[in-house]
């Protein structure tokens, strides 16, 4: 069977994207303008929840209670502060009753109740100075937010002898959504100018520096339009916008850096513009394509989880990665065709260059320092491999003590109104407010059977108090107040005991701890599938890139090691509370259940991004020379500085996201920034060259059938790679017979 000429195939692609560069750029401008219009208002259509599994028992119970007993599921709380008086003072009681009646008359408000109606001790603070009015706003997130915006100003503030503050889950979510939008705008204002300065430092030329930034902006605007369309069919989390900005800028800059740098190298080597673009697309363009696919697969793995919080990041991530790659592979070559050598215009580093250097040449890009560093690492390969691995494992040890919880008001800044209200309830009200469990009983039952069931669950060791039953037709519910923390191990165990308790009717349980139990179970059930998808597709893609069986395995293992520092830091900082004062957040003593999954998928994909950059250059040189150690040194020499620059720029973007006042967003931004820097500066610089040195030329081994498969379907420059001899001690192949490639 004749071998497919992949160089000709890629050459056809080059002709396609460079035939009419002005038309391509004009079309991109029109499409971007349409994306701005289509993506406008996307944040207003997003939700701020999505942590619960939609098919879980607790979700079913919550919806049933909302339908049958709306008063059992209040999402709006008015904290009534009587100042120096008691909440039982007649004047206070009269004003509170008036506010309760007024709230009950509001449109879209149901299930209104208050301490002054029920005299429930759970609605009265222990010092007698504060009490609660509870209600439920019906509708979807957007409708609920509109109702809250309408009524909150009416009730917030001083009313005669009392002062009212607005809280509850709906207020927490609404305030979180508002803060995230404000913080995202601030992050963009920080990231864009800092990124531009860094790009100018990398390229020297202002024109070259603007190209990656333009690709990133196109990717972000396009993704917002995609997300706006997705919101028409399913829920999307507002948190996903942060990932859109971070990956849109970060990956687009990575891809554009790689392409523009290679294009400039080809110009410096004497190629004309069209030839430089062609070689760039056959080399750096291929790498960008593989990198985008590996990152997209890592993010797509989140689609296997039922929580829309995680699925939202998959929607946003896949869209932004593919759009960034498309812009880098279509728009950027068109722009380079038009610019040609003028890509080096507006050289801002001219004064720092050596006297006599030509203005259109880039400063020394030989990477001799990185080459010497690679030689040093490989000379002491066992030492660097062992010390680096041990160090990364030690940094990850705190993750062994991880505790999983749920996101609550403490995600918000300490001064946020809804956080203040919930903190008052936590500190000043009896029991574990917000941590109550509701048991729904469905089916016919007598009062005696209800009483017997209540007595049995009251006797459970984790129960502080049981209220109810409240009956309606053939259904009833019991409110169970657990001992200890709302989502602690005792409360989670109580959920399991309540579900296992026999009853003469059907029972189901919901509440904060029940949602956590179901969320953990859903993630544990789907996690092997997600990891399996990431690993298998990564192995396949890296094999298609390299033709080796061992390099894909090495890439997966080393990428996993690069994440240890991130996971260790997440627990040490955000769970245990170290640096909480410096970073301005409130530690809850646990990590939201979905965050490690999200951070793993994103960080693993970004690690593969840099891994593909390095491996592709090593493979290209190995195909050309057949010299294993030289190829590793060459690859690090020609990509070490580029990968480091790309990692620093992406870390800047992630740190800008990490300045958010919402703790989960702060954790996501700072954690991934750390993972990116560790991967680029430790794993790619130390572990990869040392491990490849230890493995020797066996690194490139593949059985004959797989070698044939790679020659048929894989992408490589020039001809096939040198054949690895059966006897590893045999001399290197005749280099005259090796294709020189591009």
Description of the molecule:
It is a single chain. The chain has 742 residues and is of the alpha+beta class. It contains 24 helices and eleven strands. It has a five-stranded antiparallel β-sheet with strand order 2-3-1-5-4, with helices on both faces. The protein has a four-stranded antiparallel β-sheet with strand order 8-9-7-10, with helices on both faces. A hairpin with a 2-residue loop joins strand 4 (157-159) and strand 5 (162-167). It is elongated. The chain starts with 5 loop residues before the first helix and ends in a 29-residue tail after the last helix.
Task: Outline the fold blueprint.
Elements: H1 6-18, H2 21-39, H3 57-68, E1 76-81, H4 90-104, E2 109-114, H5 115-118, E3 130-137, H6 141-155, E4 157-159, E5 162-167, H7 169-203, H8 206-230, H9 240-268, H10 273-300, H11 308-339, H12 368-379, H13 381-396, E6 404-405, H14 417-428, E7 437-442, H15 447-458, E8 463-472, E9 475-482, H16 489-500, E10 506-511, H17 512-546, H18 550-562, H19 564-575, H20 580-583, E11 591-592, H21 595-625, H22 628-658, H23 663-695, H24 704-713
Parallel strand pairs: 6-11
Antiparallel strand pairs: 1-3, 1-5, 2-3, 4-5, 7-9, 7-10, 8-9
Q: Structural class from helices and strands?
A: alpha+beta
* Amino- and carboxy-terminal Cα gap: 25 Å
* Mean pLDDT over all positions: 84
Oligomer: single chain
Put simply, the count of helices is: 24
Largest sheet composition: 5 strands, antiparallel
Round the Cα radius of gyration to an integer and report it: 30 Å
Biggest β-sheet: strands ordered side by side in the sheet = 2-3-1-5-4
Shape: elongated
Low-confidence stretches: 1-10, 354-366, 717-742
Helix content: 55-70%
């Amino acid at each position: 069977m004749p071998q497919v000429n992949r160089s000709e195939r890629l050459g056809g692609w080059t002709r396609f994207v460079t035939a009419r560069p002005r038309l391509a750029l004009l079309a991109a401008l029109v499409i971007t303008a349409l994306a701005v219009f289509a993506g406008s208002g996307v944040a207003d259509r997003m939700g701020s929840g999505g942590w619960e599994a939609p098919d879980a028992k607790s979700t079913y119970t919550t919806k049933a209670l909302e339908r049958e007993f709306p008063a059992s599921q209040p999402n709006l709380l008015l904290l009534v502060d009587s100042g120096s008086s008691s909440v039982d003072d007649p004047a206070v009681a009269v004003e509170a009753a008036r506010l309760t009646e007024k709230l009950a008359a509001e449109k879209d408000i149901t299930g209104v109740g208050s301490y002054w109606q029920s005299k429930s001790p759970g609605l009265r603070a222990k010092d007698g100075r504060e009490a609660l009015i509870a209600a439920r706003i019906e509708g979807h997130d957007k409708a609920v937010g509109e109702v809250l915006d309408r009524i909150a100003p009416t009730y917030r503030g001083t009313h005669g002898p009392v002062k009212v503050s607005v809280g509850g889950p709906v207020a927490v979510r609404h305030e979180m959504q508002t803060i995230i939008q404000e913080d995202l705008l601030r992050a963009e204002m920080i990231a864009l100018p800092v990124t531009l300065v860094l790009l100018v430092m990398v390229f020297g030329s202002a024109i070259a520096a603007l190209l990656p930034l333009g690709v990133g902006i196109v990717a972000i605007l396009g993704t917002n339009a995609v997300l706006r369309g997705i919101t028409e069919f399913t829920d999307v989390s507002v948190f996903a916008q942060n990932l859109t900005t971070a990956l849109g800028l970060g990956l687009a800059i990575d891809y554009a850096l790689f392409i523009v740098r290679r294009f400039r190298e080809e110009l410096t080597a004497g190629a004309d513009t069209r030839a430089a673009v062609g070689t760039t697309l056959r080399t750096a363009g291929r790498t960008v394509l593989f990198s985008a696919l590996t990152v997209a697969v890592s993010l797509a793995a989140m689609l296997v989880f039922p929580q829309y919080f995680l699925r939202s990041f998959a929607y946003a991530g896949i869209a932004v990665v593919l759009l960034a790659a498309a812009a880098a592979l279509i728009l950027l070559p068109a722009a380079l065709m038009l610019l040609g050598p003028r890509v080096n215009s507006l050289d801002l580093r001219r004064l720092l260059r050596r006297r006599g250097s030509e203005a259109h040449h880039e400063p020394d890009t030989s990477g001799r320092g990185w080459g010497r560093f690679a030689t040093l690492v490989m000379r002491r390969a066992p030492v660097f491999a062992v010390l680096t691995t041990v160090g990364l494992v030690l940094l990850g040890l705190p993750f062994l003590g991880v505790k999983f919880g749920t996101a609550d008001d403490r995600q918000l800044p300490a001064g946020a109104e809804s956080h203040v209200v919930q903190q008052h309830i936590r500190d000043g009200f009896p029991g574990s407010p917000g941590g109550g469990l509701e048991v729904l009983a469905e089916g016919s039952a007598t009062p005696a059977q209800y009483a017997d069931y209540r007595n049995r669950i009251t006797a459970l060791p984790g129960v502080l108090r049981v209220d109810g039953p409240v009956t309606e037709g053939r259904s009833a519910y019991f409110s169970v107040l657990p001992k200890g923390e709302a989502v602690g191990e005792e409360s989670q165990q109580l959920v399991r005991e309540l579900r296992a308790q026999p009853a003469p009717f059907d029972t189901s349980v919901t509440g904060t701890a029940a949602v956590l139990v179901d969320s953990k179970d859903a993630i544990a059930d789907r996690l092997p599938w997600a990891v399996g998808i990431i690993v298998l597709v990564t192995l396949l893609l890296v094999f298609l890139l390299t033709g080796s069986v061992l390099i894909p395995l090495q890439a997966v293992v080393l990428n996993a090691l690069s994440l240890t520092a991130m996971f260790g830091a997440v627990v040490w900082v955000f769970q245990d509370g170290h640096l909480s004062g410096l970073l301005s957040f409130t530690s809850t003593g646990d990590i939201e259940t979905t965050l490690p999954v999200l951070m793993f998928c994103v960080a693993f994909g970004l690690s593969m991004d840099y891994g593909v950059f390095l491996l592709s250059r090593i493979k290209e040189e190995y195909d050309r020379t057949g010299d294993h150690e030289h190829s590793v040194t060459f690859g690090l020499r020609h990509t070490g500085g580029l990968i480091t620059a790309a990692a620093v720029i992406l870390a800047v973007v992630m740190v800008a996201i990490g300045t958010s006042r919402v703790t989960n967003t702060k954790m996501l931004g700072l954690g991934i920034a750390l993972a990116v820097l560790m991967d680029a500066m430790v794993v790619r610089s130390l572990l990869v060259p040392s491990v490849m040195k230890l493995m020797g030329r066996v690194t490139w081994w593949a059985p004959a059938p797989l070698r044939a498969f790679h020659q048929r379907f894989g992408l490589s420059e020039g001809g096939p790679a040198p054949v690895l001899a059966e006897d590893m001690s045999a001399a290197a192949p005749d280099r005259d017979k090796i294709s020189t490639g591009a």
